[in-house]
Write a structure and sequence with these properties.
Two copies of one chain form a homodimer.
Chain A: E1 2-6, H1 10-21, E2 25-30, E3 35-37, H2 44-54, H3 62-67, E4 72-75, H4 87-96, E5 100-103, H5 107-111, H6 113-121, E6 127-128, H7 139-146, E7 151-157, H8 160-172, H9 176-186, H10 194-197, H11 200-214, E8 225-227, H12 235-243, E9 246-255, E10 258-267, E11 278-285, E12 289-296, H13 300-314
Parallel strand pairs in A: 1-2, 1-4, 4-5, 5-6, 8-10
Antiparallel strand pairs in A: 2-3, 7-9, 7-11, 9-10, 11-12
Organism (chains A, B): Haladaptatus paucihalophilus DX253
Keywords (chains A, B): NADP, Oxidoreductase
InterPro entries (chains A, B): Glu/Leu/Phe/Val/Trp_DH_C, HDH_cat, HDH_CS, HDH_short, NAD(P)-bd_dom_sf
Amino acid sequence: MKLAIIGAGTVGTSVAEMAVTYGHTVTALTDSTSASIDSDGLDVEATLSQKRDTNEIGTDSVEDALASEYDVLVEATPTTLDTAQPAYDHIRAAFERDRDVVLANKGPVAQRYADVRALERESEGELRFEATVGGAMPVLSTIEDYGPEHVTALRGVLNGTANFILSRMAAEGLDYEHVLVEAQDLGVAEADPSFDVEGTDTALKCVIAANVLAQGEREYTLDDASVDGIVGTSGSALSLANADGRTVRLVGEIVDDEIRVGPRIIPQQSPLVVSGTENIVQLATENAGLLSVSGHGAGGSATAISIMADIRRLE
Amino acid sequence: MKLAIIGAGTVGTSVAEMAVTYGHTVTALTDSTSASIDSDGLDVEATLSQKRDTNEIGTDSVEDALASEYDVLVEATPTTLDTAQPAYDHIRAAFERDRDVVLANKGPVAQRYADVRALERESEGELRFEATVGGAMPVLSTIEDYGPEHVTALRGVLNGTANFILSRMAAEGLDYEHVLVEAQDLGVAEADPSFDVEGTDTALKCVIAANVLAQGEREYTLDDASVDGIVGTSGSALSLANADGRTVRLVGEIVDDEIRVGPRIIPQQSPLVVSGTENIVQLATENAGLLSVSGHGAGGSATAISIMADIRRLE
């Protein structure tokens, strides 16, 4: 397939690099202000080198890229909330040309799900967004295959930064501030970590999953989620839990049609107690108990392989 | 979709009962000697009642069912090895009529994989067999979506009977014979448990997965697997392991293109240490580390929901 990749950050770059090994051609790659376009296929390495050297990906415009020849638009610009722009406009441009759209960007399907599905209905193109929930883990495809109507609840650890921090606090008896700095030094937490540690990232993923489960009966946005983060969790909270054979993890859940995110005290042997930056999602199914998927929930490669899986499903 | 369900044991019965809630029509249902056929859709409850009362499912023949009007043939007769009959003939009959085939029966894709794929290539029909590996867990679909060529190894606990026995031995310090009887009383182990406790069931599932991963480059059968079971595992082996914070589980793995099944001593915190009859499969991916799926690996409902998922993928 010919891929137009919108966004050249960690995810866009990983998708561009992985695309060739999956048999695809990258015909356009954009950053926030420019684009590189070649309908016969870009030299991805050369294009990324140019970006590193000149801070511009090419001499074309993002508009040119949206108008170029491609099969699938991969939206990998940074997640924005509210109106989910400019991602929403990118999606609309693709659907107006009956192209398929694969999202890594959570904004459109968290904050404007009904609008995006309406654009899709008007189009020959199809929307997929596995990478927006759980990185490499096949969460949305499992829900899709088993039938959203047959999945009765979802629960998971969906943010690697928060999980890493809590794991380290528990393992070493350290306090939050200390481990946050360690996480930032390792590149596991951002300079501004609020999106992760305040629970927003987990909440967005639950909102997206809830929109899928609702199948159009109800539309969720971030405002519908009850969200508590892990900021300032004390080392003593973890020590107390540990004394009972339990620990604390940032858990997101969709239960009885409500979305809740917050630190939970859970038994140490619970499958939800994953280590480091691992993620896990448990789906309660109507007929077959709990199904769980776990793996790398974030990172360029983890996100990119779910985008490759979505593209394969479109073929 | 119209389903012709071949086999009215635990799995066939579960599929027939579940089909209607998934929006499908059961147009034929067979046991080993007879069939009930209605191209407008059987009354599944009445048909199953008749089977319970008379030990015959209907007054038509299995041949009639294979020749009847349907979209998808669901092969749910008991797994047989060697020539995988009569399942193989059922598959051939469906493909000769360009119908789709969904398997719960492991025999054809474990013992005659190349033959079955050849039949499929000659047909407009498509083959799917998620339910043959890991029950409710989305193992084969995950391999398919992420690309078999990008999955470098597989490891798992794939037999609930063996896992239940080892879990109970570890938890209670009981010996093998004692726990086997308990498992049989609970219906977790068969009267003749050899298929499960000798590792054959796990091996067949690994053989099927290995065939999928090989993508036609190599064909595996049960003879290619190195298989050790759990028969006669001693309580003291488990106690010794426990003293080191470890335990014993029956693990199947595909590593470096070889299939090995046997009891393994593993750390108690390993994700492979699942409880009771749970199963887990870990996939090593080229680009995104370990992906794991876990859930109910056996039972009528667990198997049936994977069949429903396969049918959804065919639509």
